[in-house]
Amino acid sequence: MKREIVMFGSQILRKPCPPVEEVDDEIRELVGDLFDSMRAAEGIGLAAPQIGLLQRACIVDVSIQQPGYLPVALINPKITAHEGEQIGEEGCLSFPELYGDVKRYAWVEVEATDINGETFKTAGDGFYSRALQHEIDHLDGKLFIDHISSLKRQLMRGALKRLKKEGEAWDRENA
Ligand SMILES: [Zn+2]
User: Fold this and answer.
1) 46 CA to centre of ligand 1 in angstroms
2) What's the per-residue H, E or C state across 107-142?
3) CA distance 55 to 19
């Protein structure tokens, strides 16, 4: 089911997500909702707090940008190895139409649990690596604007202020 994507300004995007204790139907439904919501918004990744759920789960799908990488759901993901650096433009479905250059690891390896409760590892570079790091950040309450230059953030100030009102309104409605 497609869910509303929570905008910047909501407190839920700043909260660290507790680990998923058991991969059950509720978690599988959450993952399905993440895919439905991400696809409707034409994103390349989405994390549970962005649909209002504090669970350590996220998805990445860069299959259009980087053919060969299949869509992936990651429960309790953690970066287990990394190499190099890359700087590239990044956006976020919780910040529509805002982009900024973010420095990330060039390559990462991530260990996670899949929707059947099995542990697996996935690794990659480019967009895939960037998207994995971006989504895992969400699970720790970190946002891409935390990584961009203060000058660029300054330039976004007006847009961020407007967004923040949307996020705060969501908090009031869902308190
Ligand atoms: Zn994001």
Assistant:
1) 6
2) EEEEEEECCCCCEEEEEEEHHHHHHHHHHHHHHCCC
3) 6
Q: Considering 83, 85, 90, 135, which one is annotated as catalytic?
A: 135
- What pTM was estimated for this model as a whole? 0.97
The DSSP string of 61-114 is: --TTTSTTPPPEEEEEEEEEEEE--EEEEE--TTSTT--EEEEE-SEEEEEEE-
Query: Above 90 in pLDDT, residue 83?
Result: yes
Which amino acid is present at 128? Y
Q: Is the pLDDT of residue 11 over 90?
A: yes
d(CA 36, CA 48): 12
- Nearest alpha-carbon partner for 144 in 19, 172, 70, 135: 135
Has 89 been annotated as catalytic?
no
Six-digit token string for 139: 């699970």
Q: What is the pLDDT of residues 105-157, one digit of tens each?
A: 999 999 999 999 999 999 999 999 999 999 999 999 999 999 999 999 999 99
**Ligand 1 centre distance from Cα of residue 24 (Å):** 25
